[in-house]
Design goal:
Layout lengths: L11 E2 L3 H8 L4 H27 L17 E5 L9 E5 L8 H21 L11 E5 L8 E3 L4 E3 L14 H15 L7 H23 L9 E2 L14 E2 L8 E2 L3 E2 L15 H4 L5 H14 L6 H11 L9 H16 L3 H12 L6
Parallel strand pairs: 2-4, 4-6
Antiparallel strand pairs: 1-5, 2-3, 5-6, 7-8, 9-10
Helix pairs in contact: 1-2, 3-4, 4-5, 5-7, 7-8, 7-10, 8-9, 9-10
């Protein structure tokens, strides 16, 4: 499946700008300094992404292993600098080394590849065996992880607010799923389509974690980024799909702003129109669906979402309602008018998104 016409890769980070803005205004220099440098670096990378879109990225020839449905991973070490990709430290099939960050990145890329291949018959990010590259130890105390349209990049965090960004496998899956969105629906990164873009990344990031752990929907914690926040932070994770708005409530970070339904939809010009904030609404709808269906969420619930993402009917500027209607149609097409169809209708009704 290729991207929609007008294909424009975007720069997507796991930490929303509004969180870094809050940290950058702290009176504590140990918090403000890394946040400001991270914001500056993100601005540079975002500009670089736009320029690459204009002049074109270098073409990538899938390796011969691609046709066999095998991953082709390469991990690079930036050595706390910002030149990408950095020095190659582990290739496909190489044994684990002493650097735990490198090993986690390698394993996370593999877990993402495996879920998409085994559950959705998708061969890597682009569906055609695209090599999966990642750079670790990016920048000095860099507090983010991002997909830049071509590869994954992980910071080590500042140790005060954020820890190593390779720790949560769902963060790795989240960012790589931005690549899947890039090569399929290519959802515009603003407002509701941007929030859908972020939600897709959260949904499949969570599914990758659940798949790796062998968890059912009932056993999963439905948290995004659990293990990423440093001990001083009052919070469990970056986001909660089960209970949006409850992931953290901290003196420095503030309170998790995500709404769980349309009654609390946040209208803002920040964060590309609230893409990391209002994603809580479709996130919650997916959680409600998965909970209702039970079992492994990457199966029936995940199949419905994946069918819409890759089906060719999801417009780049789709609203929540547009997406919801397509999930209803996909559920009926895949499973008839039974339990799955009814559960999709109920999930969207519970979050206040119309389906007709």
């Amino acid at each position: 499946m290729t991207a929609n016409p007008g294909f424009e890769p975007v720069f997507c980070t796991i930490i929303p700008p509004h969180v870094l803005d809050t940290l950058a205004q702290s009176d504590d220099a140990t918090l403000a300094g890394p946040a400001r440098r991270t914001l500056e670096r993100d601005a540079i990378e975002r500009t670089h992404r736009r320029l690459t879109t204009v002049i074109g990225a270098p073409s990538v020839t899938p390796p011969k292993e691609a046709a066999e449905g095998k991953p082709h991973r390469t991990i690079y070490d930036a050595k706390h600098k910002t030149e990408l990709p950095g020095r190659k430290v582990r290739g496909e099939g190489d044994k684990p080394g002493k650097d735990a960050t490198v090993n986690r990145a390698y394993a996370g890329l593999g877990a993402t590849f495996e879920l998409y291949l085994k559950s959705y018959e998708r061969n890597s990010i682009d569906g055609s065996g695209l090599p999966m590259n990642a750079t670790v130890h990016y920048g000095e105390n860099y507090g983010n992880a991002f997909w830049n349209g071509e590869q994954m990049v992980f910071g080590d965090g500042d140790g005060e607010i954020f820890l190593d960004f390779t720790i949560p496998v769902d963060v790795i899956g989240h960012e790589l799923t931005h690549g899947v969105v890039q090569y399929t629906a290519n959802l515009t990164y603003f407002g509701q389509p941007g929030a859908l873009n972020e939600s897709m990344a959260d949904v499949f990031g969570s599914l990758i974690k659940q798949y790796t752990l062998g968890q059912t929907a009932a056993e999963a914690d439905w948290l995004i980024g659990a293990g990423l926040l440093a001990p001083r932070v009052t919070g469990k994770a970056l986001r909660s799909m089960k209970a949006p708005g409850t992931a953290y409530d901290d003196d420095v970070l503030g309170k998790d702003p995500q709404p769980a339904d349309m009654d609390h939809y946040v209208r803002t010009g920040r964060d590309n129109g609230g893409v990391h904030i209002n994603s809580g609404i479709p996130n919650h709808a997916f959680y409600l669906l998965a909970e209702a269906l039970g079992g492994h969420a990457w199966e029936r619930a995940g199949q419905i979402w994946y069918a819409v993402l890759t089906g060719g009917e999801l417009a780049q500027d789709a609203s929540f309602a547009d997406f919801a209607k397509l999930t209803v149609a996909a559920a009926r097409a895949k499973y008839g008018d039974g339990e799955e169809h009814g559960a999709v209708l109920k999930a969207w009704s519970q979050v206040g998104v119309p389906t007709n």
